Amino acid sequence: MLDTKFIRENPEIVKKAVKDKQLAGTVDIDELLDVESRYLDLLRKVETKRALKNELSDGISKVAPEAREKLISEATQVKNDLTELESELKISKESLDKLLLKVPNIPANDVPYGEGEEGNEVIREEGKKPTFDFEPKDHMDLGVGLDIIDTERGTKIAGFRGYFLKNDGVLLHRALMDYALDLIRNKGFDILEVPWMVNRDAFVGTGYFPWGEEDHYTVQDDLSLIGSAEVSLTSYYANEVLEEKDLPVKLAGVSPCFRREIGTYGKDMKGILRTHQFTKVEQVVLVPEGEEVSRDWHEQLLRNAEELLKQLGLSYRVMLMCTGDMGPGQRKKFDIETWFPSQNTYRETHSDSYFLDFQARRLNIKYRAKDGSLKYVSTLNNTLAASPRLMAAVMENYQQKDGSIKVPDVLLPYMRGVKELR
After folding, report:
1. Which of 224, 315, 342, 351 is catalytic?
2. CA angle in degrees (0–180, nearest 5) for 271-275-278
3. pLDDT band at 387 (very low <50, low <70, confident <90, very high)
4. Which of 74, 86, 348, 420 is catalytic?
């Protein structure tokens, strides 16, 4: 959420952000400013009436009996007026808050303009792509041949994009998650297994609602299934005040993730690259205010993910996402795309974002600065490992001519003696 003072003083900048993020028609900034003006006017009237009410109440006991009745009558009228104004103020505040939740974050100055993925920029390519003396298979053909992936029966009981992992496929999937947890824990992150069903406040607070509401599964008791541990981790300190000396807070969560994949029908029809359920290790960091602090941590989270891919021996490229291909709440976003030999292309496996105080304002997460003042924290997050997509990349890059798959060296300690999938 943006500060209303910032919106009031910079309406054209905010309008441009709405346009550049392809959100035109979702919120009217002029309407928001009109609603805020009416709200502030009502607030002033309420505060004036409250002061008068208190003054009259104090005066009743101090006046002579013959003047008291007139004063009581006047106080009663003020009280009635105040009740009516407070009701109007509440409605006005609800309208303002509803509009504020639809205002996106302002893209950083170095984020390129673009309407969609064609506007993204390649920052760099890393790693050596594998070469084969045979035609490489895709992960699905490999998985079926090794009897470690079953989408036919997965679809039978779970619908479109349902799947089973089996035997050594389960081991490889879990090895990736355990390896990622060990890597990030060794960097001083607290690791958490998070709630998978959370309340609406957590989704609104992290900016997934109202924009992405249709892409999430809703269950009973006003709860929804998370599409990322980011929702639970970032909300961990909601409505709390931290101390500056305790920042940065470094959290890593592991969880199943659930997404309806609205708008992706027809994409990735084969295999397990785009599924309704997957598992992810996510990094979340809370830091003090300041653009440079967030930018430094943005790069650090990126390096953590790159370290994982380098140790896995996978080739990848880093992308700077354009305005139209980043989330409404994101200030700046990098994607990492990993090489898939069967497709002869890179596919997205990681997303790295910073928000400044956008999420913290919505979640009311503050810290007490060294000078005693209260400020909002800044938040960041990045994928460390998401499987089965990352597992599919490992399978394709480490396949052998006979259809077997060599296990990357860094995963061997987690594979219970399995060195090759056969």
Report:
1. 351
2. 115
3. very high
4. 348
Contact at 8 Å (CB) between 342 and 156?
no
SS3 of residue 339 by DSSP: strand
DSSP 130: P
Is 259 among the catalytic positions?
Answer: yes
The pLDDT, as a whole number, for residue 59 is 75
What average pLDDT score do residues 141-162 get? 95
Residue 285 β-bridge partners: 250, 380
Catalytic option among 68, 274, 295, 347: 274
Query: Is 50 annotated in the active site?
Result: no
Residue 257: strand pairing partners = 278
Summarize pLDDT for 229-277 with one digit per residue, the tens.
999 999 999 999 999 999 999 999 999 999 998 766 667 778 899 999 9
Predicted local confidence at residue 361, as pLDDT: 98
361 is catalytic: no
- Quote the radius of gyration of the chain (alpha carbons, Å): 27
Distance CA 163, CA 276 (A): 9
* 124 noted as active-site residue: no
pTM, two decimals, is 0.93
**Is 73 an active-site residue?**
no
Helix (H, G, I), strand (E, B) or coil at 79: helix
Catalytic residue among 259, 331, 361, 362: 259
Are 165 and 149 within 8 A, CB to CB? yes
pLDDT of residue 306: 98
Average pLDDT in the 87-109 region? 97
Helix axes 168-185, 291-312, angle to 10 degrees: 140
